[in-house]
Design goal:
39% helix
Length: 170
């Protein structure tokens, strides 16, 4: 801290997202992103500066076709990597790949334990089912998963249900 070196960095890889959450502040239009090489350069600079914890987020990180390449580069630079995602695009292959790359933790947004509420917030039918399936896959592969729950008038009554769901999912 005395040297002014950040120990942790949160890096948004994209603004693109497959959900359109009612509370989201991001403009999801593709207005250009850093290339894989540019992100690699940023990661090198962060490593050289002494950063240890790296959180990769977005938009939805898995919208980037080079996402796993970026994670690999971050791990090669010995970052402790955490990922924020809605998990809708995570299937068995992606879960195993994240585990194989040594990702420390996955944070997944769950807005309700009830599909009609969660899916209404994400505006993506079936998103709760797919997110829960992904959480099960990720935990089965041995990854640490945490659930993030943004409370708002439309889901405030479901807070205890999300807590119970989180406990059920481990």
């Amino acid at each position: 801290l005395k040297l002014g070196v950040p120990i942790s960095v949160h890096l948004d890889l994209t603004y693109r997202c497959n959900e359109r959450c009612v509370h989201c502040y991001l403009d999801h239009d593709d207005k250009g992103e850093m290339s894989t090489a540019e992100i690699g350069n940023v990661l090198t600079q962060l490593a050289d500066a002494g950063v240890f914890f790296l959180t990769l987020s977005g938009g939805e990180v898995l919208m980037r076709r080079d996402f796993f390449e970026i994670v690999q580069r971050a791990r090669d630079l010995e970052f402790n990597v955490k990922v924020k995602t809605n998990a809708v695009m995570i299937r068995e292959h992606e879960a195993k790949r994240l585990r194989g790359l040594g990702v420390e933790q996955i944070q997944i947004s769950v807005y309700s334990h009830r599909a009609e509420i969660h899916d209404a917030i994400t505006k993506l039918p079936g998103s709760l089912r797919r997110t829960i399936e992904a959480i099960r896959l990720l935990t089965t592969t041995g990854l640490k998963v945490s659930i993030a729950n943004v409370l708002m008038p439309g889901n405030l009554a479901d807070n205890s249900g999300v807590i119970a769901l989180a406990k059920e999912l481990g």
